[in-house]
Each structure stands twice: as C-alpha cells, then as structure tokens.
Design brief:
By secondary structure, this protein is mainly beta. Helices cover about 15% and strands about 45% of the residues.
Amino acid sequence: MRIILSPLMRIAALACLIAPLQPAFASADLQTSLTIRNDGGEALKCVILFGHWVTSDIADIAPGQTGEVKIMRAAKDGALYVPRFDGRPMMIERIACGRTAGWWESIGDVPLLPLREKAEAASETRCRLSDRAVCTTPQPAMP
C-alpha cells in the first residue's frame, strides 16, 4: 500500500521532523562567561558536572592564569546550562576544582548560586588550593 501526501501534509511532516533540531533555550536566556582565576601556587583542574554523571573538563589552569567557561543562564528560573550539539540544554549541577593529581580528594565547589540569582555578562571567581580547593563567590568581571 502506498500513501500519497498532499503538498501541505508534506510540509507539515517536514516541520515535525525539523522542529526538534531547533535550540531548546529561550532567546531571552543570557550567555555568560565565568572566569576561574588560579590564585594558588599549583595547577588547578576544574570540571563541569552535569546530571547523570556527565562531566566536561576545563583545561588545567596554571598558577596565576585563568580558565573561562561559557554558560547559559535561563531567564525563566536562573538555571545554568551548556547547549548540547543538538541545542538541548545540559543542566549544570556544579563546577568543582581540585589538584591535577588526586583531584577527587581535593575538590571544592565554585559557588554557583550568585550566578543563578543575578544575570551578569561576565563573572570571575578566584580559587586556591589548601587541603581542598577554595573558590570565592563569583563577582561581576571588570571590563
């Protein structure tokens, strides 16, 4: 049996196939950057932890250097995410930094609540290692 679709039905079917490929984030969502400055004397390894044990490494940050993370902040509720390859959001649970060797034993979190509460185009946190990584509350970056 062969199904024949009218031109209008073909367009509607095509639209249904293409619609899921459109970005899932709202146009009002803000792209922001978070700079992580290493104020300590040894290299930092920082990792974005998403839901379901998915991670994304940020390049190791040498002493006195910075690493930058581009993230999206949802206008609706302040949720932080990174768009996936298909445009759907990968929700950020935490950003953790620690030593390059023995990372898990030395991790400390970057406080994300200020980024969720207020939209800033760019923010900076400063981290240093002691027993664990300690990161300051992100502040608006100076232009």
